[in-house]
Write a structure and sequence with these properties.
α2 packs across α5. Strands 1-8-7 form a three-stranded mixed β-sheet, with no helix packed on it. A three-stranded antiparallel β-sheet has the order 4-5-6, with helices on one face. A two-stranded parallel sheet has the order 2-3. The protein contains five helices and eight strands, in the order αββαβααββαβββ. By secondary structure, it is an alpha/beta fold. β2, α2 and β3 form a beta-alpha-beta unit. The termini are far apart. It is globular and about 50 Å long.
Amino acid sequence: MPEPEFDPDAKEQALASAAQAWDTTQIGTAAPGDVPTVDLTRIHTPEGFASAAERLGGACRTVGFFYLTGHSLPSELRRLALDEARRFHALPDTTKAALRMDLPGRPQGIGYLEVGHRKLPRRRQGNQNAAFIVKRDIDLSLADNLWPAEDDLPDFRRNIEHVAAALEQVALGLLPLFARALKMPRDFFAPAFEDPLYRLRLTRYPRQNEGYGIAPHVDTTFITLLLSTSPGLVIYQPRRREWIRVP
């Protein structure tokens, strides 16, 4: 019997409806163990690989979030990513507006989103963040994205492409662990990621006393890697049946 055709719009609406029904008025403080740690330091040994895969599988089944340590993204590249995000958001508003997402005649889903935007996730109430998004897809290379002029932001494109390539390798390196956690062959996911889609999002959250920096949502990609400079992430902890602030 053929598989039913996937309807992404219907799926998005279903996820949005579920998210809008969540009660996030009461938020607790994370306790030890609420967010597990997956350490990749020893994954090149059979014992280390098995241990990391077990931790990853347990985290995904019980919480859906984890801290990732021992990965291949060096500290200097993490600093570079954050520095470039700050440089971009410090540009004049008119310069950023010229890179606005979904302008006519441009690829969809890339470019600048100003504070109050209603995309990613799509919501009736605006998201209180600004973001610059680059994307790679089967029909879209990094070169096809919107980039600030070199005179406006020297070396920005080169640096962000360098960061994106390194992050891609971190993500691809997790695939064998996911496969092992699911008791699949180590290379089970490899064919689906020969030319992977990803978004790199440089986000700035203005200081605010109430409301969401980004609306409650479910990510629909295979995995999200998040690098932050301060607390702010709130997640649902199923074991405690409580929303918690992640340290």
